[in-house]
Amino acid sequence: MRQEFSSVTRPVKELRGFRRITLNPGETKVVEFTLGPEELSYLNRDMHRVVEPGTFKIMVGGNSVDLIEAKLSVVEK
Fold this sequence. Notes:
- The protein is mainly beta.
- The protein has one helix and five strands; from the N terminus they run E-H-E-E-E-E.
């Protein structure tokens, strides 16, 4: 995943919500996982774990290049 804008410099891609599955040739599977506050958070300048409002790019794939992407938005309540 990647947060498109944050108050501190973040990695271009972060591995979160990872689970390895094995498929036989031609086999398909539906895989579900949940991204919650722990997966969306990071340590800010004051070393506090925070989730900042903004847009996150979620990337799924068999490697770090060939990816399917979706976006989600985190808003303040």
